[in-house]
Amino acid sequence: MKKKTVLITAGPTREYIDPVRYISNGSSGKMGYTLAEEADRMGMDVILVSGPTNLVPSRDIKFIRVSSAKEMLTAAKKYFPKCDIFISCAAVSDYRPAKYSLEKIKKNGSPLNLKLLPNPDILLSLVKSFKQFRSRPKFIVGFALETENLIANALAKMKNKRMDMIVANNPDSIGSVRTSCALITKEKIMRFQNIPKIRLAKIILSETIISL
Ligand code: C5P
User: Fold this and answer.
1) Per-residue pLDDT reduced to its tens digit, 34-79
2) How many CB atoms lie within 10 A of CB 2?
3) What's the confidence (pLDDT) of residue 196?
4) Which pLDDT does position 75 carry in this prediction?
5) Fewer CB under 10 Å: which end of the chain, C or N?
6) Which residues' Cβ are closer than 6 Å to ligand 1?
7) How much distance in Å is there from the Cα of 199 to the middle of ligand 1?
8) How many Cβ atoms from other residues are within 10 Å of residue 160's Cβ?
9) Which tens digit of pLDDT belongs to each residue from 42-53?
10) Which pLDDT belongs to residue 175?
11) Ligand 1 closest atom vs CA 161
């Protein structure tokens, strides 16, 4: 069987306000990096595009370190047409500051208003523009982190972003080695309570491989 290539986005993005401050999302990158390590162990070619985390991937993994959502989109776009599987695990910041200050903004005791602009949706823009590319990945996995209506919101995202599978979880999983989640495909929903992320990664990847 031809070696499969998997592209994974992981970690948070950082949207800088000035040289020291930024807005971001809570994300340790553990789920994305665990998926990358497991895919590597399964013999796949792995490309990991990651926002800032404290994690270090194995040497076999092609690693692209980014900071902002725009940088993540540029990097993911380069590899998207060449991969068999795309796993969008990154907790992308939905907004970025409208203005970047070259100098550190001085505090003066008054409220500070920040204007935020919406960031590009990486997954959505890749699936929408796939016609420009020669091909698109055969299988796309996304994640949804919700505090309410978990399954309904995840199903809507899966349809809107043309995913083949979505992993729906809640904020309790951030930074933890375990998670409680629902893994949803077009055919079924599997629910897991307090499952180690490494075990979940193996399940996601084996469900993906049988669908290729
Ligand atoms: O943030 P949201 O819940 O919409 O995320 C759903 C999926 O879309 C996730 O897989 C996430 O990685 C991806 N996403 C993205 N670019 C964004 C926001 C989310 O690729 N700007």
Assistant:
1) 999 999 999 999 999 999 999 999 999 999 999 999 999 999 999 9
2) 5
3) 95
4) 98
5) N
6) 69, 88, 90, 92, 94, 119, 121-123, 142-144, 157, 161
7) 23
8) 13
9) 999 999 999 999
10) 83
11) 8
Q: Which of 58, 28, 60 is nearest to 44 (CA)?
A: 60
pLDDT for res 26: 92
In angstroms, the CA 182 to CA 142 distance is 12
Answer yes or no: 25 catalytic. Answer: yes
Q: Could you say which DSSP state residue 91 is in?
A: B
| CATH code for the structural domain at 5-101+115-211 | 3.40.50.10300
Q: What is the pTM of this model?
A: 0.96
The pLDDT score that the predictor gives to residue 174 is 82
Residue 116 pLDDT > 90: yes
One of 25, 113, 149, 153 is an active-site residue; which one? 25
Report CA(99)–ligand 1 centroid distance (Å). 23
Secondary structure class of 178 (helix, strand, coil): strand
How far does the centroid of ligand 1 lie from the alpha carbon of residue 57, in Å?
A: 22
Mutation test residue for ligand 1: of 92, 124, 148, the one with most atoms within 8 Å of CB:
92
Nearest to 173 by CA among 201, 153, 135: 201
Output DSSP code: residue 174.
T
Which single residue is written with the structure tokens 């399964």? Answer: 42
User: DSSP secondary-structure letter at 171?
Assistant: G
Q: How far is the CA of 59 from the centre of ligand 1 (A)?
A: 27
Mean per-residue pLDDT for 15-38? 97
